[in-house]
Protein backbone atom coordinates (compact mmCIF):
# COMPACT_ATOMS: atom_id res chain seq x y z
CA UNK A 1 0.00 0.00 0.00
CA UNK A 2 1.21 3.48 -0.85
CA UNK A 3 0.31 6.34 1.49
CA UNK A 4 0.96 9.79 0.16
CA UNK A 5 1.23 13.14 1.84
CA UNK A 6 -0.02 16.28 0.12
CA UNK A 7 1.10 19.66 1.46
CA UNK A 8 -0.30 23.02 0.32
CA UNK A 9 -0.85 26.49 1.79
CA UNK A 10 -4.60 25.83 2.05
CA UNK A 11 -6.84 22.80 2.54
CA UNK A 12 -8.47 23.42 -0.83
CA UNK A 13 -5.21 23.23 -2.73
CA UNK A 14 -4.14 20.10 -0.85
CA UNK A 15 -7.41 18.35 -1.70
CA UNK A 16 -7.08 19.39 -5.34
CA UNK A 17 -3.61 17.78 -5.48
CA UNK A 18 -4.99 14.66 -3.81
CA UNK A 19 -7.83 14.29 -6.28
CA UNK A 20 -5.59 14.93 -9.28
CA UNK A 21 -3.15 12.15 -8.29
CA UNK A 22 -5.22 9.49 -6.51
CA UNK A 23 -8.60 10.06 -8.14
CA UNK A 24 -12.10 10.59 -6.86
CA UNK A 25 -12.11 7.38 -4.73
CA UNK A 26 -9.09 8.32 -2.62
CA UNK A 27 -9.39 7.78 1.14
CA UNK A 28 -8.31 10.63 3.47
CA UNK A 29 -6.55 9.18 6.49
CA UNK A 30 -5.67 12.37 8.36
CA UNK A 31 -5.14 16.12 8.05
CA UNK A 32 -2.97 18.43 10.08
CA UNK A 33 -1.59 21.96 10.01
CA UNK A 34 2.17 22.41 9.65
CA UNK A 35 4.50 25.33 9.16
CA UNK A 36 4.22 24.82 5.40
CA UNK A 37 0.41 24.82 5.47
CA UNK A 38 -2.10 21.96 5.44
CA UNK A 39 -0.82 18.37 5.23
CA UNK A 40 -3.21 15.62 4.09
CA UNK A 41 -2.36 11.89 4.38
CA UNK A 42 -4.30 9.72 1.92
CA UNK A 43 -4.27 6.50 -0.07
CA UNK A 44 -6.09 5.17 -3.06
CA UNK A 45 -9.01 2.83 -2.53
CA UNK A 46 -7.25 0.01 -4.47
CA UNK A 47 -4.18 0.11 -2.26
CA UNK A 48 -6.36 0.09 0.85
CA UNK A 49 -8.18 -3.03 -0.40
CA UNK A 50 -4.85 -4.80 -0.93
CA UNK A 51 -3.67 -3.84 2.54
CA UNK A 52 -6.58 -5.66 4.19
CA UNK A 53 -5.32 -8.97 2.66
CA UNK A 54 -1.78 -8.59 4.14
CA UNK A 55 -0.45 -7.97 7.61
CA UNK A 56 -0.20 -4.32 8.52
CA UNK A 57 3.50 -4.71 9.34
CA UNK A 58 4.34 -5.61 5.69
CA UNK A 59 2.55 -2.51 4.35
CA UNK A 60 4.62 -0.07 6.35
CA UNK A 61 8.08 0.84 5.03
CA UNK A 62 10.99 0.74 7.44
CA UNK A 63 11.48 4.47 7.11
CA UNK A 64 8.14 5.27 8.69
CA UNK A 65 7.97 6.67 12.19
CA UNK A 66 6.00 5.19 15.03
CA UNK A 67 3.23 7.76 14.54
CA UNK A 68 2.94 6.83 10.84
CA UNK A 69 2.73 3.14 11.70
CA UNK A 70 0.05 3.86 14.30
CA UNK A 71 -1.97 5.86 11.75
CA UNK A 72 -1.59 3.00 9.25
CA UNK A 73 -2.80 0.48 11.81
CA UNK A 74 -5.80 2.62 12.65
CA UNK A 75 -6.63 3.04 8.97
CA UNK A 76 -6.26 -0.69 8.39
CA UNK A 77 -8.56 -1.53 11.27
CA UNK A 78 -11.11 1.05 10.10
CA UNK A 79 -10.97 -0.29 6.54
CA UNK A 80 -11.42 -3.87 7.76
CA UNK A 81 -14.38 -2.83 9.89
CA UNK A 82 -15.91 -1.03 6.93
CA UNK A 83 -15.39 -4.09 4.70
CA UNK A 84 -17.04 -6.34 7.26
CA UNK A 85 -19.88 -3.89 7.61
CA UNK A 86 -20.23 -3.87 3.85
CA UNK A 87 -20.42 -7.66 3.69
CA UNK A 88 -23.04 -7.77 6.46
CA UNK A 89 -25.16 -4.80 5.36
CA UNK A 90 -24.52 -3.47 1.84
CA UNK A 91 -27.14 -0.78 2.17
CA UNK A 92 -25.46 0.80 5.20
CA UNK A 93 -22.11 0.72 3.43
CA UNK A 94 -23.53 2.55 0.49
CA UNK A 95 -24.85 5.26 2.81
CA UNK A 96 -21.43 5.61 4.50
CA UNK A 97 -19.69 5.83 1.13
CA UNK A 98 -22.14 8.51 0.01
CA UNK A 99 -21.51 10.54 3.17
CA UNK A 100 -17.73 10.31 2.70
CA UNK A 101 -18.05 11.34 -0.94
CA UNK A 102 -20.36 14.24 -0.03
CA UNK A 103 -17.93 15.48 2.63
CA UNK A 104 -15.07 15.30 0.14
CA UNK A 105 -17.07 17.20 -2.52
CA UNK A 106 -17.97 19.92 -0.02
CA UNK A 107 -14.33 20.36 0.91
CA UNK A 108 -13.19 20.43 -2.70
CA UNK A 109 -15.93 22.62 -4.23
CA UNK A 110 -16.26 25.22 -1.47
CA UNK A 111 -14.13 28.34 -1.85
CA UNK A 112 -12.01 28.95 1.22
CA UNK A 113 -10.16 32.11 2.15
CA UNK A 114 -6.42 31.48 2.60
CA UNK A 115 -5.62 31.06 6.29
CA UNK A 116 -2.40 32.33 7.86
CA UNK A 117 0.17 29.63 8.67
CA UNK A 118 -0.12 28.64 12.34
CA UNK A 119 2.78 28.32 14.69
CA UNK A 120 4.45 24.87 14.56
CA UNK A 121 3.09 23.46 17.81
CA UNK A 122 2.07 19.86 18.48
CA UNK A 123 -1.66 20.15 19.06
CA UNK A 124 -4.55 17.88 18.09
CA UNK A 125 -5.31 18.49 14.40
CA UNK A 126 -8.85 19.34 13.26
CA UNK A 127 -10.78 16.99 11.02
CA UNK A 128 -11.69 18.07 7.45
CA UNK A 129 -15.28 18.82 8.53
CA UNK A 130 -14.06 21.01 11.40
CA UNK A 131 -11.76 22.88 8.99
CA UNK A 132 -14.68 23.42 6.63
CA UNK A 133 -16.80 24.83 9.44
CA UNK A 134 -13.98 27.17 10.42
CA UNK A 135 -13.71 28.54 6.90
CA UNK A 136 -17.50 28.83 6.63
CA UNK A 137 -17.54 30.92 9.82
CA UNK A 138 -14.86 33.18 8.33
CA UNK A 139 -16.99 33.68 5.22
CA UNK A 140 -20.04 34.52 7.33
CA UNK A 141 -18.07 37.07 9.34
CA UNK A 142 -16.80 38.67 6.14
CA UNK A 143 -20.35 38.90 4.74
CA UNK A 144 -21.65 40.48 7.96
CA UNK A 145 -18.82 43.03 7.92
CA UNK A 146 -19.55 43.84 4.28
CA UNK A 147 -23.24 44.40 4.99
CA UNK A 148 -22.47 46.63 7.95
CA UNK A 149 -20.09 48.68 5.79
CA UNK A 150 -22.75 49.11 3.08
CA UNK A 151 -25.37 50.11 5.65
CA UNK A 152 -22.98 52.69 7.12
CA UNK A 153 -22.28 54.12 3.64
CA UNK A 154 -26.00 54.40 2.83
CA UNK A 155 -26.70 56.07 6.17
CA UNK A 156 -23.91 58.59 5.57
CA UNK A 157 -25.22 59.35 2.05
CA UNK A 158 -28.73 59.96 3.40
CA UNK A 159 -27.36 62.29 6.08
CA UNK A 160 -25.38 64.24 3.46
CA UNK A 161 -28.49 64.57 1.26
CA UNK A 162 -30.54 65.82 4.21
CA UNK A 163 -27.86 68.39 5.10
CA UNK A 164 -27.71 69.67 1.51
CA UNK A 165 -31.51 69.97 1.38
CA UNK A 166 -31.53 71.96 4.63
CA UNK A 167 -28.82 74.27 3.27
CA UNK A 168 -30.85 74.80 0.08
CA UNK A 169 -33.99 75.62 2.07
CA UNK A 170 -32.09 78.04 4.30
CA UNK A 171 -30.61 79.74 1.24
CA UNK A 172 -34.06 80.12 -0.34
CA UNK A 173 -35.46 81.41 2.95
CA UNK A 174 -32.74 84.06 3.21
CA UNK A 175 -33.33 85.02 -0.41
CA UNK A 176 -37.07 85.42 0.21
CA UNK A 177 -36.47 87.41 3.39
CA UNK A 178 -34.14 89.79 1.56
CA UNK A 179 -36.67 90.18 -1.25
CA UNK A 180 -39.46 90.98 1.24
CA UNK A 181 -37.27 93.52 3.02
CA UNK A 182 -36.52 95.19 -0.33
CA UNK A 183 -40.22 95.19 -1.20
CA UNK A 184 -41.21 96.76 2.12
CA UNK A 185 -38.55 99.42 1.69
CA UNK A 186 -39.91 100.13 -1.79
CA UNK A 187 -43.45 100.53 -0.46
CA UNK A 188 -42.30 102.93 2.24
CA UNK A 189 -40.54 105.12 -0.32
CA UNK A 190 -43.42 105.04 -2.81
CA UNK A 191 -46.83 103.99 -1.37
CA UNK A 192 -48.38 104.20 -4.84
CA UNK A 193 -46.61 100.95 -5.72
CA UNK A 194 -48.61 99.18 -3.06
CA UNK A 195 -51.83 100.62 -4.43
CA UNK A 196 -50.87 99.56 -7.96
CA UNK A 197 -50.05 96.06 -6.74
CA UNK A 198 -53.47 95.87 -5.11
CA UNK A 199 -55.18 97.11 -8.30
CA UNK A 200 -53.49 94.49 -10.48
CA UNK A 201 -54.11 91.56 -8.11
CA UNK A 202 -57.75 92.57 -7.69
CA UNK A 203 -58.02 92.58 -11.50
CA UNK A 204 -56.89 88.94 -11.68
CA UNK A 205 -53.19 89.33 -12.42
CA UNK A 206 -50.81 87.06 -10.53
CA UNK A 207 -49.00 88.50 -7.45
CA UNK A 208 -45.60 88.04 -9.12
CA UNK A 209 -46.72 89.86 -12.28
CA UNK A 210 -48.25 92.68 -10.21
CA UNK A 211 -45.10 93.04 -8.14
CA UNK A 212 -42.86 93.08 -11.23
CA UNK A 213 -44.93 95.92 -12.73
CA UNK A 214 -45.30 97.85 -9.45
CA UNK A 215 -41.56 97.83 -8.74
CA UNK A 216 -40.95 99.73 -12.00
CA UNK A 217 -43.49 102.46 -11.26
CA UNK A 218 -41.73 105.86 -11.36
CA UNK A 219 -41.98 108.18 -8.37
CA UNK A 220 -43.77 111.51 -8.30
CA UNK A 221 -46.84 110.57 -10.42
CA UNK A 222 -50.40 111.47 -9.59
CA UNK A 223 -53.25 108.97 -9.75
CA UNK A 224 -54.18 109.72 -13.36
CA UNK A 225 -50.57 109.45 -14.46
CA UNK A 226 -50.23 106.10 -12.66
CA UNK A 227 -53.32 104.84 -14.50
CA UNK A 228 -51.93 105.96 -17.86
CA UNK A 229 -48.52 104.47 -17.10
CA UNK A 230 -49.80 100.99 -16.18
CA UNK A 231 -52.17 101.00 -19.17
CA UNK A 232 -49.30 101.69 -21.57
CA UNK A 233 -47.14 99.00 -19.92
CA UNK A 234 -49.84 96.35 -20.33
CA UNK A 235 -50.59 97.37 -23.92
CA UNK A 236 -46.91 97.10 -24.90
CA UNK A 237 -46.66 93.61 -23.42
CA UNK A 238 -49.73 92.31 -25.25
CA UNK A 239 -48.76 90.75 -28.60
CA UNK A 240 -51.83 91.39 -30.74
CA UNK A 241 -52.08 90.38 -34.41
CA UNK A 242 -53.02 93.40 -36.59
CA UNK A 243 -56.31 93.27 -38.45
CA UNK A 244 -54.65 93.13 -41.87
CA UNK A 245 -52.64 90.03 -40.88
CA UNK A 246 -55.29 87.90 -39.22
CA UNK A 247 -56.21 84.33 -40.16
CA UNK A 248 -58.75 85.29 -42.82
CA UNK A 249 -56.45 87.78 -44.53
CA UNK A 250 -53.26 85.70 -44.58
CA UNK A 251 -54.95 82.37 -45.30
CA UNK A 252 -53.42 78.92 -44.78
CA UNK A 253 -54.34 75.80 -42.86
CA UNK A 254 -55.28 76.28 -39.20
CA UNK A 255 -56.52 73.89 -36.53
CA UNK A 256 -58.37 75.20 -33.49
CA UNK A 257 -57.24 73.23 -30.43
CA UNK A 258 -57.91 73.35 -26.70
CA UNK A 259 -59.74 71.66 -23.81
CA UNK A 260 -63.38 70.68 -23.93
CA UNK A 261 -66.04 73.39 -23.77
CA UNK A 262 -63.89 76.37 -24.81
CA UNK A 263 -65.92 77.04 -27.97
CA UNK A 264 -63.77 75.56 -30.77
CA UNK A 265 -66.67 74.56 -33.04
CA UNK A 266 -68.51 77.87 -32.63
CA UNK A 267 -65.31 79.86 -33.20
CA UNK A 268 -64.56 77.76 -36.32
CA UNK A 269 -67.99 78.67 -37.67
CA UNK A 270 -67.39 82.36 -36.92
CA UNK A 271 -64.08 82.37 -38.80
CA UNK A 272 -65.64 80.44 -41.68
CA UNK A 273 -68.46 83.00 -41.94
CA UNK A 274 -65.97 85.89 -42.05
CA UNK A 275 -64.04 84.16 -44.84
CA UNK A 276 -67.15 83.34 -46.90
CA UNK A 277 -68.53 86.87 -46.55
CA UNK A 278 -65.27 88.40 -47.73
CA UNK A 279 -63.95 85.91 -50.31
CA UNK A 280 -66.81 83.53 -51.13
CA UNK A 281 -67.64 79.93 -50.31
CA UNK A 282 -65.12 78.51 -52.79
CA UNK A 283 -62.26 80.03 -50.83
CA UNK A 284 -62.97 77.97 -47.70
CA UNK A 285 -62.38 74.34 -46.71
CA UNK A 286 -63.86 72.85 -43.54
CA UNK A 287 -62.59 69.67 -41.83
CA UNK A 288 -63.59 68.15 -38.52
CA UNK A 289 -61.76 65.48 -36.49
CA UNK A 290 -64.31 65.44 -33.66
CA UNK A 291 -65.82 61.95 -33.80
CA UNK A 292 -66.14 61.55 -30.03
CA UNK A 293 -68.96 63.91 -29.10
CA UNK A 294 -72.49 63.04 -30.13
CA UNK A 295 -73.69 65.53 -32.73
CA UNK A 296 -70.34 67.38 -32.93
CA UNK A 297 -70.01 66.83 -36.69
CA UNK A 298 -73.69 67.65 -37.26
CA UNK A 299 -73.26 71.02 -35.55
CA UNK A 300 -70.45 72.08 -37.90
CA UNK A 301 -72.29 70.63 -40.92
CA UNK A 302 -75.30 72.82 -40.13
CA UNK A 303 -73.05 75.88 -40.15
CA UNK A 304 -71.43 74.66 -43.36
CA UNK A 305 -74.82 74.15 -45.01
CA UNK A 306 -75.82 77.70 -44.12
CA UNK A 307 -72.55 79.01 -45.59
CA UNK A 308 -72.73 76.74 -48.64
CA UNK A 309 -69.52 74.86 -47.70
CA UNK A 310 -69.18 71.10 -47.46
CA UNK A 311 -67.69 69.71 -44.24
CA UNK A 312 -65.32 66.72 -44.43
CA UNK A 313 -64.36 64.31 -41.66
CA UNK A 314 -60.80 63.11 -41.02
CA UNK A 315 -60.45 60.29 -38.55
CA UNK A 316 -56.84 59.31 -39.28
CA UNK A 317 -53.59 60.97 -40.25
CA UNK A 318 -53.91 59.61 -43.79
CA UNK A 319 -57.41 61.08 -44.13
CA UNK A 320 -56.16 64.48 -43.03
CA UNK A 321 -53.28 64.46 -45.51
CA UNK A 322 -55.56 63.40 -48.36
CA UNK A 323 -58.13 66.10 -47.60
CA UNK A 324 -55.48 68.77 -47.20
CA UNK A 325 -53.93 67.87 -50.56
CA UNK A 326 -57.33 67.97 -52.24
CA UNK A 327 -57.93 71.51 -50.86
CA UNK A 328 -54.65 73.07 -51.92
CA UNK A 329 -56.45 75.73 -53.97
CA UNK A 330 -58.54 76.87 -51.02
CA UNK A 331 -57.57 80.22 -49.51
CA UNK A 332 -58.34 79.12 -45.95
CA UNK A 333 -58.69 75.63 -44.46
CA UNK A 334 -60.11 75.40 -40.95
CA UNK A 335 -59.91 72.20 -38.87
CA UNK A 336 -62.19 71.71 -35.88
CA UNK A 337 -60.48 69.27 -33.49
CA UNK A 338 -61.84 67.17 -30.64
CA UNK A 339 -61.64 68.79 -27.21
CA UNK A 340 -59.09 67.23 -24.87
CA UNK A 341 -58.07 68.07 -21.33
CA UNK A 342 -54.55 69.41 -21.17
CA UNK A 343 -53.34 66.32 -19.32
CA UNK A 344 -54.96 63.83 -21.70
CA UNK A 345 -52.40 61.47 -23.23
CA UNK A 346 -54.02 62.01 -26.66
CA UNK A 347 -52.90 65.65 -26.74
CA UNK A 348 -49.35 64.67 -27.72
CA UNK A 349 -50.68 62.33 -30.43
CA UNK A 350 -52.96 65.04 -31.84
CA UNK A 351 -50.15 67.58 -31.81
CA UNK A 352 -47.84 65.21 -33.70
CA UNK A 353 -50.45 64.50 -36.39
CA UNK A 354 -51.12 68.20 -36.96
CA UNK A 355 -47.43 69.09 -36.95
CA UNK A 356 -46.56 66.31 -39.40
CA UNK A 357 -49.38 67.53 -41.66
CA UNK A 358 -47.94 71.10 -41.60
CA UNK A 359 -51.05 72.49 -39.91
CA UNK A 360 -50.77 75.62 -37.78
CA UNK A 361 -52.43 75.43 -34.37
CA UNK A 362 -54.40 78.18 -32.62
CA UNK A 363 -55.17 77.63 -28.94
CA UNK A 364 -58.50 78.71 -27.46
CA UNK A 365 -58.35 80.05 -23.89
CA UNK A 366 -61.47 80.26 -21.77
CA UNK A 367 -61.49 83.65 -20.01
CA UNK A 368 -63.62 82.24 -17.17
CA UNK A 369 -61.04 79.60 -16.18
CA UNK A 370 -58.65 79.96 -13.26
CA UNK A 371 -55.27 81.50 -14.18
CA UNK A 372 -53.48 78.41 -12.84
CA UNK A 373 -55.56 76.19 -15.12
CA UNK A 374 -54.90 78.42 -18.13
CA UNK A 375 -51.18 78.36 -17.44
CA UNK A 376 -51.26 74.54 -17.31
CA UNK A 377 -53.20 74.41 -20.59
CA UNK A 378 -50.66 76.57 -22.40
CA UNK A 379 -47.70 74.58 -21.09
CA UNK A 380 -49.16 71.28 -22.35
CA UNK A 381 -50.36 72.56 -25.74
CA UNK A 382 -47.26 74.67 -26.42
CA UNK A 383 -44.88 71.70 -26.75
CA UNK A 384 -44.11 72.20 -30.47
CA UNK A 385 -45.13 75.84 -30.78
CA UNK A 386 -48.41 77.63 -31.36
CA UNK A 387 -49.43 80.11 -34.05
CA UNK A 388 -51.38 82.15 -31.54
CA UNK A 389 -54.40 82.16 -29.29
CA UNK A 390 -58.05 83.23 -29.21
CA UNK A 391 -59.70 84.29 -25.94
CA UNK A 392 -63.24 82.95 -25.73
CA UNK A 393 -66.21 83.59 -23.41
CA UNK A 394 -65.00 87.09 -22.60
CA UNK A 395 -68.60 88.09 -21.92
CA UNK A 396 -68.89 85.54 -19.09
CA UNK A 397 -65.69 86.48 -17.23
CA UNK A 398 -65.70 88.77 -14.17
CA UNK A 399 -61.90 89.22 -14.28
CA UNK A 400 -59.76 88.89 -17.41
CA UNK A 401 -56.45 89.85 -15.83
CA UNK A 402 -55.60 86.15 -15.36
CA UNK A 403 -55.96 85.22 -19.02
CA UNK A 404 -54.03 88.34 -20.14
CA UNK A 405 -51.31 87.48 -17.61
CA UNK A 406 -50.94 83.99 -19.15
CA UNK A 407 -50.91 85.38 -22.71
CA UNK A 408 -48.19 87.90 -21.85
CA UNK A 409 -45.97 85.56 -19.82
CA UNK A 410 -46.03 82.87 -22.55
CA UNK A 411 -45.66 85.50 -25.31
CA UNK A 412 -48.67 84.24 -27.30
CA UNK A 413 -49.89 86.13 -30.33
CA UNK A 414 -53.54 87.08 -29.76
CA UNK A 415 -55.74 86.78 -32.89
CA UNK A 416 -59.35 87.31 -31.77
CA UNK A 417 -61.63 87.65 -28.78
CA UNK A 418 -65.02 85.91 -28.66
CA UNK A 419 -67.81 87.51 -26.67
CA UNK A 420 -70.86 85.32 -27.25
CA UNK A 421 -72.58 82.53 -29.23
CA UNK A 422 -73.81 84.53 -32.21
CA UNK A 423 -72.27 83.58 -35.55
CA UNK A 424 -70.45 85.53 -36.88
CA UNK A 425 -71.21 88.69 -34.89
CA UNK A 426 -69.55 87.78 -31.58
CA UNK A 427 -65.97 87.56 -32.86
CA UNK A 428 -63.67 90.60 -32.89
CA UNK A 429 -60.01 91.23 -33.67
CA UNK A 430 -58.00 91.56 -30.47
CA UNK A 431 -57.68 95.20 -29.40
CA UNK A 432 -55.09 95.89 -26.65
CA UNK A 433 -56.76 99.16 -25.59
CA UNK A 434 -60.12 97.46 -25.06
CA UNK A 435 -58.62 94.47 -23.27
CA UNK A 436 -56.51 96.50 -20.84
CA UNK A 437 -59.39 98.87 -20.07
CA UNK A 438 -61.69 95.91 -19.44
CA UNK A 439 -59.09 94.22 -17.22
CA UNK A 440 -58.37 97.25 -15.00
CA UNK A 441 -62.01 98.16 -14.43
CA UNK A 442 -62.89 94.66 -13.19
CA UNK A 443 -63.84 94.52 -9.53
CA UNK A 444 -64.56 91.61 -7.22
CA UNK A 445 -67.60 91.23 -5.06
CA UNK A 446 -67.49 92.46 -1.49
CA UNK A 447 -66.75 88.97 -0.14
CA UNK A 448 -63.66 88.69 -2.34
CA UNK A 449 -62.16 92.13 -1.71
CA UNK A 450 -59.06 92.53 0.43
CA UNK A 451 -59.05 94.88 3.42
CA UNK A 452 -56.12 97.23 4.07
CA UNK A 453 -54.74 95.06 6.90
CA UNK A 454 -55.04 91.90 4.79
CA UNK A 455 -53.35 93.72 1.93
CA UNK A 456 -50.31 94.55 4.06
CA UNK A 457 -50.03 90.97 5.26
CA UNK A 458 -50.40 89.62 1.72
CA UNK A 459 -47.76 91.95 0.30
CA UNK A 460 -45.38 90.96 3.08
CA UNK A 461 -45.78 87.31 2.11
CA UNK A 462 -45.10 87.80 -1.59
CA UNK A 463 -41.69 86.39 -2.49
CA UNK A 464 -39.76 86.03 -5.70
CA UNK A 465 -41.69 82.84 -6.46
CA UNK A 466 -44.95 84.78 -6.69
CA UNK A 467 -46.55 83.05 -3.69
TrEMBL record:
Domain SRP54-type proteins GTP-binding: 251-441
SMART domains: AAA (SM00382), SRP54 (SM00962)
Protein name (database record): Flagellar biosynthesis protein FlhF
SUPFAM superfamilies: P-loop containing nucleoside triphosphate hydrolases
Molecular function via GO: GTP binding; GTPase activity; signal recognition particle binding
Native source organism of the sequence: Limnobacter thiooxidans
Keyword Metal-binding carried by entry: no
Domain AAA+ ATPase: 250-384
Keyword Protein transport: yes
Entry keyword set: Bacterial flagellum biogenesis, Bacterial flagellum protein export, Cell membrane, GTP-binding, Membrane, Nucleotide-binding, Protein transport, Transport
Region of interest called Disordered, as start-end residue ranges on this chain: 52-97
Pfam families listed in its UniProt record: SRP54
Membrane topology: Peripheral membrane protein
Family recorded in the similarity comment: Belongs to the GTP-binding SRP family.
Biological processes annotated in GO: bacterial-type flagellum organization; protein transport; SRP-dependent cotranslational protein targeting to membrane
Tree of life domain: Bacteria
Compartmental location: Cell membrane
Amino acid sequence: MKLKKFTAPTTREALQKLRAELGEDAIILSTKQTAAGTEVLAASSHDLDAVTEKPAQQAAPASWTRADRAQLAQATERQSAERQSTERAPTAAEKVAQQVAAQRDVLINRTFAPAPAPAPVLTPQPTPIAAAREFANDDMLSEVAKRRSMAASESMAQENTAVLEEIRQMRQLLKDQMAMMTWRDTLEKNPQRGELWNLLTQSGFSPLFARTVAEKLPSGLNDNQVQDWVTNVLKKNLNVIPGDKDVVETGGTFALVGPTGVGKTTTTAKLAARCVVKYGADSLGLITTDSYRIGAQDQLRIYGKILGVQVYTAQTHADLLQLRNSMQRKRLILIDTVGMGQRDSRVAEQTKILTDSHVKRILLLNATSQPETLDDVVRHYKSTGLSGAIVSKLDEAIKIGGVLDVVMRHKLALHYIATGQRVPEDLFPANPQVLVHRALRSRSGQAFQTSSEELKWKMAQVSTTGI
